[in-house]
Structures are given as C-alpha cells and as structure tokens.
C-alpha cells in the first residue's frame, strides 16, 4: 500500500488551514494513517531538508519550521498513487506557478510561506515517515 508524508507547515497551521487540507485528502478517498502536532527539533528539520543544506534560504527555512510560533501537523496518507497525487493536490512548490484548485494555488503566493509539504518520491516518503513518525511500525 502506497504511503506518503504530508505536512501542514507553521504558516498553514497559524492560518487555520489544517481542516481544509485534511478534508481535501479525505474527500479524494485517501486514508489518514498517521497524524501528529509538533514543533520539530532543529535536528529533525535539518535532516528533513538535508538536500537543501547548501541553499541560501536553508537556515531561514529551518528556523521558520522550528521557532515554535506555530507547530507543524505531520501526517501519513495512504492510497493509490498518493505520492504523485498528493504533490498534485499541493500544487507547485512556488505558489506563483501553482494552479487554481490546488492547496497552494488557492491559498498562498510566497515560496517561503507555501503552507504544506509532500514527499516527492517513494524513497523520500519512506525516509520522511521514518523521520517524523519513528519507524513505519508506528503508523
Ligand atoms: P516541499 O518539500 O516543501 O514539498 P519541494 O520538494 O517541492 O517542496 P524544495 O525545492 O525541496 O521543493 O523546497 C523545499 C521547501 O523549501 C519549499 O517548500 C519552500 O518552503 C522552501 N524553499 C524552496 N525554495 C525557496 C526559496 N527560493 N526561498 C525560500 N524558501 C524556499
């Protein structure tokens, strides 16, 4: 069964978009199999975004995810093609390129405040579920 990691980032939580995002995945027919509200540690955020560690925005991104002004909602969703479809439901990383009807396309305009995260491959999904949920056995 295919699973992906979807997160509502602090800006999405702060803006009250959690129920909308969960609802979109539920109504599509996907199954929620893991859910937690947390302020991630620096170590968790650094590892989650390890591929971006050389980017100029890396430190700001990690600070934003971990500063505790709002928590993150981490979720595991299960169902057919949920990795690819989940990314399509989120919309393009840069909200200025995200189509209407997508989460980012409907609710934001700034790449630094793009509301949500979704695993981009089966390998990322496995890594991220393990990282955020401490092993697939938990979910
Ligand atoms: P995500 O992993 O969040 O779903 P992605 O895999 O599509 O996004 P990445 O290029 O891995 O895109 O970027 C990860 C996150 O880093 C983005 O979602 C965004 O929050 C942040 N980010 C990317 N580019 C920039 C930028 N130029 N300025 C600020 N933040 C950025």
UniProtKB/TrEMBL annotation:
Its EC number is 2.7.4.6. Coiled coil: none annotated. Residues 1-139 form the Nucleoside diphosphate kinase-like domain. ATP binds at residues 9, 57, 87, 93, 104, 114. The active site is at 117 (pros-phosphohistidine intermediate). Belongs to the NDK family. This is Nucleoside diphosphate kinase. The gene is ndk1_1. The chain holds residues 85 to 223 of 238 of the full protein.
């Amino acid at each position: 069964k295919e699973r992906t990691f979807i997160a509502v980032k602090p800006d999405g939580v702060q803006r009250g978009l959690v129920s909308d995002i969960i609802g979109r995945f539920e109504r599509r027919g996907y199954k929620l199999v893991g859910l937690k509200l947390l302020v991630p540690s620096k170590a968790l955020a650094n590892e989650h975004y390890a591929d971006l560690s050389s980017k100029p925005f890396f430190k700001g991104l990690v600070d934003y995810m971990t500063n505790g002004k709002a928590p993150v909602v981490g979720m595991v969703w299960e169902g057919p093609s949920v990795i690819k479809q989940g990314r399509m439901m989120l919309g393009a990383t840069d909200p200025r390129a995200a189509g209407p009807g997508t989460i980012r396309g409907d609710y934001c305009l700034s790449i630094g405040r793009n509301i949500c995260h979704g695993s981009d491959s089966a390998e990322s999904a496995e890594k991220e579920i393990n990282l955020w949920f401490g092993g697939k056995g938990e979910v």
